[in-house]
Amino acid sequence: MIKILLVDDDYLALEGLCQMLHWDDFNGELSGCATDGLDAVSMIEDNPPDVVVADIKMPRMNGIELSRYLYENHRGTRVILLSGHSEFEYAQKALQYRVTDYILKPVTRQKIKELETLLKKIDKELAAKKQIRRLTGSEVLKDRLLSLLRQGDEKAVYDFLYDGVLAEALLHDTAGTLGSTLLNHTFAYQNEIGKDKAALDELKKTCTDEYWLLSSSRERVSYIYTRCQELMTYAQSRKSEYEQPIVAHCIQVIQESFSDPGFNISQLADQANLSLPYLSTVFKQAMGQTISSYLSRQRLLCAQKLLQDISIPIKDVCARSGYEDPHYFARSFKKQTGMTPSEYRNLHSSRDFTPEYSDKEGNP
Predict the structure, then answer these.
(1) Which three-class secondary structure state does DSSP give residue 102?
(2) pLDDT in tens, 297-314
(3) Predicted TM-score of the model (pTM)
(4) At 101, phi and psi to the nearest 5?
């Protein structure tokens, strides 16, 4: 809802505006009516509106003076002035106070439609600004962009920037703050994939300077998309160079640590000095399965091998395979093999058996 304050020294004019406006059409709510600028100031201090619709000629404080007060004290409040033909040049003086627009009197039904059109536009702009503030501080937005960059899907990045809620917010991002936030997220990804810090700092400065030289929201969105394209191309060209050592390191650490019940994939990411989402993406692309699936597989294979030795109690098999909770071990083992640990032992302990991994969920 946008809160609207009506100001006019003509009481009948105020009543007419209240009755003739289709408030639901522009998501409006009447915050009050004032008969001159000073009354309006008192109301504004108690409950700042989103929009002030005010007559120019009023006693004590006129519309121009009220516009100046709002410009100096409440810049977020929009102003629409009502003026007669003889006051046209006078109304133009209010432009220095960022008056949104003016409606020529008398206020006929056609003029009401013009006013409603302006209010609809303001409602849309204010909603977009709220969305911009929300998105600018959103970790979900950052995670989504980084996820798309890791996938290297240019079409998905294009749709992300040019379609939907984000695209609408970016087009209204006249201050450039939301776009600047997205640009910073791309630098976070460049750091993630191991770009040289000195080179990255220089690139960040150059890109930031270029971004703020652009004058329109559309140009800035295009600039961000171009940077994303270049970054995905760069990441693809270096993929084999930096991914193979990462995956090899992960496999080595898992082989050395899977028997520790306290070991988890977050520790693996910390050791590799990489974010967990990025590490997971690199590992899955190289191995065809998630890190969690690979870790579970190693623990299961170990358990299968140990169960064939009947001298090892099942509770010890559980602990030595990296499972802390025996009940969880039993459930997990049966889910993946179709048998309990005891059933598996009875079936395979007397045979020359090489265990095979079977994942009922369909993971490789």
Answers:
(1) strand
(2) 899 999 998 998 899 999
(3) 0.52
(4) -170, 180
